[in-house]
Structures are given as structure tokens and as C-alpha cells.
Amino acid sequence: MAKNINSVSFTILLVVLLVASTEILKTEAQTFCFECGPVPFLGTNADCFNCCKTKYGSPPVVSGVVEGSEKHCHCYC
């Protein structure tokens, strides 16, 4: 019985380590911090990110996304 419990515990530990090492559980923990460019922003997400990097620096800015019905360029930290 103890051998089976040790085997199960070891298997669960391996699965947890695998998930942690491959970042499967990693969430998008970025938070909105700035806006950049004109409204509506007519560029792509890459253009938005470049605007954010130029204006605010990287870090703190880690991504830029054009979103919303009015097409705002949102910078995320």
C-alpha cells in the first residue's frame, strides 16, 4: 500500500514540475498602464507596441494592443 502511495505522489510531483516548467498555467498578468497615439489608432498591434516602447520605454511596457470599439492603443505593463 505504501509503495502505491509513493508511486502516485511521485507521478503527481512529475506532472506538477512539467506543467510549471512549460508555463502551461502562466496567465496574462499584464495590467493596463498607458494609452498611446491618436484615436482611432489605425496601425496594427505591432505599431501600437512600438508607440508604447517609444513613448514610455520597455520596461515598464511589455505589450501594446489595439482594442475597443474606438480603436485605442493600450499599453500594458
Automatic annotation (TrEMBL):
Protein origin, superkingdom: Eukaryota
Protein name: Defensin-like protein 206
Record keywords, A-Z: Signal
Signal peptide: 1-29
